[in-house]
């Protein structure tokens, strides 16, 4: 158990394939079992659906902007934030999540969860609303249950925002390749977005300074005759789409540091 664990013993790292199995274990023990929309779409009861979504995370991790939390005392991965760089897609091509749903999901449960993400994204076109051509989306955020309550998710979100700022300045680059689009790695995010589905993750977003753009009741989503809220219960009644602009002051500071390092 991690009772009393100091967050100073937890370091946040860019995702590394060395920790692939441990990162997937965080999803299996936390996200797939406890995430509201996983319960609503019965991903928590469908091992094959979980495998489908593990593949999604591994594909996304190849984009080089995902983060992991590591307990330095035990060399154990205790939290993950699978992030993806998104750019506008043409109507005929569809977005990456639509392509994944149609080509790689093998179960109704995983397709239902992907459809939830697609539906939520479609409600607000962030690219048009904020006039940006690239954003960093925090896609799947999870902490091992035994490490819950120690601010690890908050640190992962904070570091995801910082990574977006560094990418914007050109101070760092995505690690690894990106099979979705050869142009994505050349883009610089101007916005960070996330879908937070529980009051726990929503409070994390509030702490880090995200702005709520849309709020949608879980009763709106139906799987096999039951709404997501029917299965997940009333404690977490809605999902929120949230965004955070790249902070101009911090971005300018990072850019100045980057320029100094080049000279």
From TrEMBL:
SUPFAM superfamilies: Acyl-CoA N-acyltransferases (Nat). It comes from the Eukaryota. InterPro entries: Acyl_CoA_acyltransferase (IPR016181), GNAT_dom (IPR000182). PROSITE patterns: GNAT. Residues 67-229 form the N-acetyltransferase domain. GO terms for molecular function: N-acetyltransferase activity. CDD domains: NAT_SF. This is N-acetyltransferase domain-containing protein.
